[in-house]
Amino acid sequence: MKRSKIFVSLFIFAMMLGLVQVASAQDATKPVSGISWKSTTIDVGKIVQGKPVTVEFEFTNPSMVPLIIQSVRPTCGCTVADYPKEPIQPGKSAKVSTTYNAATTGMFSKSIIITTNAAEGNTVLIIKGEVTPRK
Prior knowledge:
Blueprint: H1 2-29, E1 36-37, E2 41-48, E3 53-60, E4 69-74, E5 79-82, E6 93-100, E7 106-116, E8 123-132
Parallel strand pairs: 2-8
Antiparallel strand pairs: 1-3, 3-6, 4-7, 5-6, 7-8
């Protein structure tokens, strides 16, 4: 009796393990989106303190699946971003627009983290340059 319980338990465990492997294989064959950036870093050069500067990061969806931007997170309160809320269809292009308003002078590098349904995972966009004092 005890052996049959062990055998049944092992059989159930093996079946569950097989189901997990089948589910993982199905997920691996599911089509995924892609994203191709024209550039992930933009150097704005010298800008004047307190005068906002806006840059646009262009991208294309090279895949056969709509691209969905799930979130755009600037890493600083001095940077805001705007992005397409609707899916980007295969072969189409769009832009993420970011505005930086410098409060202090000197060199800067600001990051914006983009999360999408693309296979590439998160993308970090960078705005860099130098803030000069107001005249």
